[in-house]
Amino acid sequence: MLDIALIAISFKLSHMFRYGDTALQHQYSIFFVLFALFWWIVSGFKYFFFRIEGFIPFEKKTAELINVFILHAFLLSTCIVVFNLEDLSRLLLLYTYLLTALLIGISRIILLLVNRYFSKSDMAYSRYVIIGTGPAAMSLRDTFSSEEHPGTKFMGFFDDNTDAVNPHNSQVRGTLADLKEYCLQHRIDEVYYTLPLNNREQIEDLTEFADDNFMYFRIVPDFSGIVQKEVNMYFYHNIPIISIRREPLEHVTNRIIKRAFDFAFSLTVILFLFPIVLPIIALAIKLESKGPVFFKQLRPGKKNRLFLCYKFRTMHVNNQTEQQATKHDPRVTRVGRFLRKTNLDELPQFFNVLLGDMSVVGPRPNLVSQLDQYSKVISKYKMRHFVTPGITGYAQVSGFRGETKELKLMEKRIEYDVRYMENWSFMMDMKIIFLTIWNMIKGEKNAY
């Protein structure tokens, strides 16, 4: 609501600077609705939603704000081109963006300062105690004590079996028998239970006590003996299920969103871009060297299922198709070098996307020979095949593209592929597509 109000003010001021009055003309009133709608859509996605609580560092908030402005400008520019909105004043649009960035930036700083002020005041403190002094209790206390979690005040540990050498013994306020009286005397808001979950009567008693005295009782399971990294827990009806690895694309809704975008995006490219570029590229390939326009090769896809991957032919016809292209590779034609540098050789893969063998964004499908080679020496190599391979990927826009002469280069590529799987979001896909287009414009130094 605040953002939309600030955008409206920016439009009014921009119109005044450009035309001398604040009464928006009809086309700018419509454009304001479009501008605000795009802002609401872009800033509302999970990884770009601006929360004003202090749990997110200021640097990350600033980076997210910049990302949203870049993506918003990209989408709006696309809309202007597609709908041929040529009568809009470019100067007014520039004024609007500058004022919107200024006003929203100032509003974020003010909200942050107000939040910090109230977070540091006594009225904002949420007083909490921790039952137990084990690893889970210490991790919880350290997490809440960090600067990223203001507004909480640690009041002490309670445990019947404290370790004599525990460095935090001075913060132990007593045994579990002392807990209830202490909570009532010090107006505790939250109680965190980190002990083993085998004492059902104790847990039920503490739950009832917390409910009766308007406290939040939270259980913190200790998984340190089971897994050594972050896990995800969700419920299927009333059954708790632990997922060792975070995989957003294991959820049907996310897969539907991704597939719907893939289908719409690839169909758009095929219908509007291919009729223009296909004859030009095909003619250039044919004029330079003999052979087919398209090159097709079996590649491992999702769950290692092989599929025919299509590309524009960039090499002279040869019998070494399972060998990676290298710098100054004599097999690569002059036209092919340009196509590889600009990623245009990958355009036919939009047919693979339309057929469902590939996605617009995902781990790049490697050669079959690479699957055999690297799956034996890189432990997480096969994990990248949990998801559908993509025309472009997180590793490629992060600088890990082209020849993998050393094992560590492939390891880094796999590391980014796994990161993509574990942190997927629709906005992440949009960011990767934007960076791919940017790399196409400036050229890829590692594309041979």
Automatic annotation (TrEMBL):
Enzyme class at the top of the EC tree: transferase
Entry EC number(s): 2.7.8.31
Example of a GO MF term: undecaprenyl-phosphate glucose phosphotransferase activity
Major location category of this protein = membrane
| Pfam families in alphabetical order | Bac_transf, CoA_binding_3
Please state every residue range assigned to the domain named Bacterial sugar transferase. 258-441
GO CC: one term? membrane
Q: How does this chain sit within the bilayer?
A: Multi-pass membrane protein
Q: Does the keyword Transmembrane apply?
A: yes
Transmembrane ranges, per UniProt, are 28-50, 62-85, 91-114, 263-285
Key words of the record: Membrane, Transferase, Transmembrane, Transmembrane helix
Record Gene3D superfamilies: NAD(P)-binding Rossmann-like Domain
Q: InterPro entries, per this entry?
A: Bact_transf (IPR003362), EPS_sugar_tfrase (IPR017475), Undecaprenyl-P_gluc_Ptfrase (IPR017473)
UniProt-annotated location(s) = Membrane
Return the similarity comment.
Belongs to the bacterial sugar transferase family.
This chain belongs to which protein, by name? Undecaprenyl-phosphate glucose phosphotransferase
**Organism expressing this protein natively:** Pontibacter diazotrophicus
